[in-house]
């Protein structure tokens, strides 16, 4: 058994047997638990196990927590593919439904590193006072109010949060990057930046610099992971909505591994969206479609019912004025869906992602 897998299994067992005298350092990604969030959590945990920062006791148990239930993690085909390809069993991890943060905070000294997000979800706000480190690559959220004098914050506009973690590791010690870890980070970076190709607008200078140190075959890696991500043959229409889900101010925002126009052709897709809105007690569902097999294509869908129509109208108006409000233009054009309660917007500026859509959703919700 390689040392990396041995560390993960030991960390999990240690957390199960934690006592009041133990210190615990948690590394946790965002609630969508996508590939970048997963690998960033794992990589930083492994690094901090050997190179603890001053705020973390030397004796602390350092453990990554995958911020989704095991059941929902299995829906993330690209995550499972990358981990299995590297020989890392899925049962070596602690999943969000397997850890009781309330009890842990009561019984142990806990510190927390956030990766791939810097605004805690409602379920994770209990950890707020224990955060001592943040790595993220999305735009700074105005609602965040972390004290940079007390918390180490690294927020940089790169294509992948894994790039920031890899840079930290490489700066300290290349010896930590065992084969499995290096390959996982590289696969994640290639996938997150749509092949590390400049024309796709995702890869930044640091992504390319770190990738050069981890280089193998960009095209082959990207195509393999993308194929796994797009494999929905085993999923129902409703499970596809859960595959890459973010909750923004109680509004479900599923990321689709295809365009919304293609998703709506799947059997029971419309019924799945309606049921999904009921499950989350929301009159609005915002669907982000992405097709990246050959040429990148994007679209955005809005489903509404009842009073959700008011929010839909506000959101559409803000999308149209995004250049004025946010300084970027999605270049949306409306497409027919065949449904009276779903509108589809084809996104002609493919360089803008869900990270640019979420701030507008939050602003629309305030209004």
TrEMBL record:
<keyword id="KW-0464">Manganese</keyword>
<dbReference type="InterPro" id="IPR004097">
    <property type="entry name" value="DHHA2"/>
</dbReference>
<dbReference type="InterPro" id="IPR038763">
    <property type="entry name" value="DHH_sf"/>
</dbReference>
<feature type="domain" description="DHHA2">
    <location>
        <begin position="222"/>
        <end position="365"/>
    </location>
</feature>
<dbReference type="InterPro" id="IPR001667">
    <property type="entry name" value="DDH_dom"/>
</dbReference>
<dbReference type="InterPro" id="IPR038222">
    <property type="entry name" value="DHHA2_dom_sf"/>
</dbReference>
<dbReference type="Pfam" id="PF01368">
    <property type="entry name" value="DHH"/>
</dbReference>
<dbReference type="Pfam" id="PF02833">
    <property type="entry name" value="DHHA2"/>
</dbReference>
<keyword id="KW-0479">Metal-binding</keyword>
<comment type="similarity">
    <text>Belongs to the PPase class C family. Prune subfamily.</text>
</comment>
<keyword id="KW-0378">Hydrolase</keyword>
<protein>
    <recommendedName>
        <fullName>DHHA2 domain-containing protein</fullName>
    </recommendedName>
</protein>
């Amino acid at each position: 058994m390689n040392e990396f897998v041995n560390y993960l299994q030991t960390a999990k067992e240690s957390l199960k047997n934690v006592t009041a005298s133990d210190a615990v350092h948690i590394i946790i990604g965002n609630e969508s638990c996508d590939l970048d969030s997963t690998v960033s959590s794992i990589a930083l945990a492994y690094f901090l196990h050997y190179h603890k920062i001053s705020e973390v006791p030397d004796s602390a148990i350092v453990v990554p927590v995958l911020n989704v239930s095991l059941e929902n993690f299995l829906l993330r085909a690209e995550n499972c593919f990358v981990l299995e390809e590297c020989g890392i069993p899925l049962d070596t991890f602690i999943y969000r439904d397997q850890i009781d943060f309330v009890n842990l905070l009561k019984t142990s000294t806990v510190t927390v590193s956030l990766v791939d997000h810097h605004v805690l979800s409602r379920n994770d706000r209990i950890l707020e006072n224990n955060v001592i480190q943040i790595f993220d690559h999305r735009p700074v959220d105005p609602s965040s109010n972390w004290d940079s004098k007390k918390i180490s914050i690294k927020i940089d506009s790169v294509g992948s949060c894994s790039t920031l973690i890899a840079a930290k590791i490489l700066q300290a010690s290349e010896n930590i990057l065992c084969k499995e870890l290096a390959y996982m980070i590289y696969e994640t970076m290639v996938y997150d930046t749509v092949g590390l190709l400049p024309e796709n607008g995702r890869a930044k200078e640091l992504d390319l610099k770190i990738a050069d140190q981890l280089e193998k075959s960009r095209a082959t890696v990207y195509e393999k992971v993308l194929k796994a991500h797009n494999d929905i043959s085993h999923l129902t229409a409703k499970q596809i909505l859960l595959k890459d889900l973010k909750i923004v101010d109680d509004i479900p925002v599923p990321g689709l591994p295809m365009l919304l126009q293609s998703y709506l052709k799947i059997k029971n897709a419309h019924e799945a969206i309606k049921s999904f809105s009921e499950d989350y007690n929301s009159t609005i569902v915002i669907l982000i479609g992405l097709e990246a097999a050959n040429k990148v294509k994007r679209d955005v869908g809005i489903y509404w019912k009842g009073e959700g129509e008011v929010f839909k109208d506000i959101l559409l108006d803000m999308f149209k004025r995004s250049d004025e409000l946010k300084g970027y233009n999605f270049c949306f054009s409306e497409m027919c869906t065949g449904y009276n309660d779903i509108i589809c917007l084809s996104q002609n500026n493919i360089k803008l992602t869900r990270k640019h859509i979420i701030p507008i959703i939050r602003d629309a919700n305030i209004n």
